[in-house]
Amino acid sequence: MPEKKMDCTFCQPDEDLNARIINRGKSIFTFLSNPRFRRHHLLVVPNEHYVGEDAMNSDILGKIMYEAKSWANVVDFGYGAVVTQKSQPRQPENGIKIDHAHFHVWPRTKQDEQNGIVIPAPQSFDDFFVPSNEKERIELDEDIQRNKRELRLLFLRKKGMPWPDIWALMEKEHSRGTS
User: I need a labelling partner for 153 at 20 to 30 A (CA). Which of 72, 76, 118, 164 fits?
Assistant: First the structure.
């Protein structure tokens, strides 16, 4: 059975990554990527360290796919959503190298090509993930919290909860300071 690696971003999530988690289960977790990369872009990750999907048993792979497809349904705004898997480490020149298997949930937009999703490639890790000053950090945190609230609303609505009940729940949470 795989174990957690001490030097892996997904095995040992820091405070910033933990703040982006929107669903955590016994064997997988889902978190919001940087909204500046693509709004409502999610990653579904096994809790244990797997380098690729071939190393996963069918149970864990099934849980990941079910979670990814469920969120793909939530972030489908009329143009569809795509689930992709990245088991290969990123190119070393862009500064992003995560060998922990993860699945992306990409909402499609009307600007996407008809036969394939257009995914912007960051020039470096810092371009999308590291704020350069306190003001940018606060703006990024606000973007993340806004995206998390929007996803929660969309999730509840897709599950059939009526809008008045959703708004009442959100108002109740806001008054308690838990939104």
Answer: 118
- Burial annotation 21-41 (CB, 10 A radius, 16+ → b, else e): ebeeeeebbbbbbbbbebbbb
Q: Which two tokens stand for residue 19?
A: 């703040």
User: Which domain, by its residues, includes 89?
Assistant: 15-176
Q: Which residues pair with 30 in a beta bridge?
A: 23, 44
pLDDT tens for the 179 residues of the chain, in order: 576 777 788 888 888 888 889 889 999 999 988 776 777 889 999 999 988 778 888 899 999 999 999 898 888 877 778 888 755 544 443 455 677 888 889 887 776 655 455 554 444 444 445 566 788 777 777 877 777 777 877 777 777 778 788 778 777 766 765 54
**8 Å CB contact between 153 and 168:** no
Give me the number of domains the chain comprises: 1
Residue 42 bridge partners (DSSP): 32, 105
Structural domain includes residue 9: no
Nearest CA to 34 out of 47, 50, 16, 48 is that of: 16
105 and 75 Cβ atoms separated by less than 8 Å: yes
**Is 19 inside a domain boundary?**
yes
Residue 10 lies in a domain: no
